[in-house]
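Show me any protein, fold above all:
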Amino acid sequence: MPSITPVPTELGIDNAPPVLSISSLSVHAVDPQANVPVLTDISFQVRAGEIVCIVGESGSGKSVTSLAVMGLLPRRELVASAGQILVNGEDTLSASANRLRQMRATQMAMVFQEPMTALNPVETVGFQIEEVLRLHTGLNRTERHRKVLDMLSSVHLPDVDRIYDAYPHELSGGQRQRIVIAMALILKPKLLIADEPTTALDVTTQKQILSLIRELQQKQNTAVLFITHDFGVVAEIADRIIVMYRGKVIEVGNRDDILARPVEPYTRKLVTSVPSLVPVKLEASKKKNILDVVSLSKVYTQKKMFGRDTSVAAASDVSLSLGRAEIAGIVGESGSGKSTVARCIVRLIQPTSGSVCIDGVDVSRQTGRQLSLWRRRVQVVFQDPYRSLNPRMRIGDSVIEGLTNFGMRRAEAMEKARDLLKVVGLDAEVLQRYPHQFSGGQRQRICIARALSLEPEVLVADEAVSALDVSVQAQVLQLLREIRERTGIAILFITHDLRVAAQICDTIVVMQKGRIVESGSAVEVLTNPREAYTRALISAAPGRNWDFQNLRPLDAASLQPIADPIELGREEIKIDIPS
């Protein structure tokens, strides 16, 4: 456990009055039997024109702090038991429900992580933004419409008249997040809280959203409280950083102090767990290919009752190979075709043309029992471990499901499940528990154990670490490397995060609009990219100018390979892989 030093109450960067001032805030569970403090004696301030980032692992209290500020704590579960939260001098903890509703639009606003859950799917986005004006202003319909269009333009959305009449599902993830930001800022609140607003976005969209938040913050002199686990984002936008651990603030400082000169061991552990864009130097693999994808294409056709059918090529003429014990990364923006290729390889969708060969045998057209037997050789780990596990099944039943489907006796399968959980650093007692009783990182380890249960030769990891804390992410990356080294499994690693790809991949394939535009060793692609698109991806990577493992700024123009940085954080997970 890290040592915890007292944090000074006065954290301001100047003498201007703070927009947000939190003093000695404590939050506890409503259930007296729980008796677990969620937040303990939290104190900090955010001033006008300042971006303060709160960082920490899942469970550190970051999001609970933001919900307490907004007056959105779940009433039957959590209660603020002590302290004060002042927004422009007004205490939100003592404010009435009606007053809080008024303040949420005019004084403070929040941008949530997942815009699809923040937007009503059956209303147009223009109607939803205009609703804020209907409830809190006296503007007539024409004035409201004009103001919404102006706001859509200010967040750099194209064709604002079309966007106004669009439904959320008709927009991309980046466009939906811009809509949520427009909704939050249309009344020019003094305080903006952004809770992981860029976590699920690709690097180029992420860069645009961060630039947008910084631009609007400077124009409106807004105080921004930015919650994130991504230190790359922190390196890009933070003026000051607050580090939280188990409901307490353990360190506060400006960006350079925290990233280059952390005082607390916990802060140092967090920062050095962050993957940097400096690629790992690996020896070239000369092992025989286990997977060969040749001229793979996937075309989706939309049938129309009237007029011509329309077709969209999600993947076009994709060819790649994967050697035994090799980790190959596929990178690119959302919509580049990465996941489509992965799903074609594991036969979750049928490719339109081309071949997928395992050990020289084309499996792209296999069906029935042949396909079922082939699935033992290729397994997949998905991005979201919350949705990958059946919430009504115990962990043991989930892990052994594949084994029992292929005829293994339940008792024997359970014994193998216990060994697999040891492989991923979990105790055998978790077999009797349910998915909701685990953290995100633990769930992902369980998903990896389940995928390994059938002893596959190829593991497809589709954004398997993108939603995890940096320290857990480092552990899972190390886990995949350890498993590869001991079992010889080949891994196809799909990611939009070039920093992650730099740390784990032997080779990298870059995709754009369904096609491969560049491929080669990770060192070649990241240090000497040939294509303009690859260079644009690298320049958009957040934190590209920091070597986090060595706690120093980085000359990004001269990236050099370094020794295995996954070594950092290795003490956090004990892996005992049976021979």
Residues 290-300+313-572 form a domain with the Rossmann fold fold (CATH 3.40.50.300). Residues 30 and 76 are 6 Å apart (CA to CA). The first strand starts at residue 20 and ends at 29.
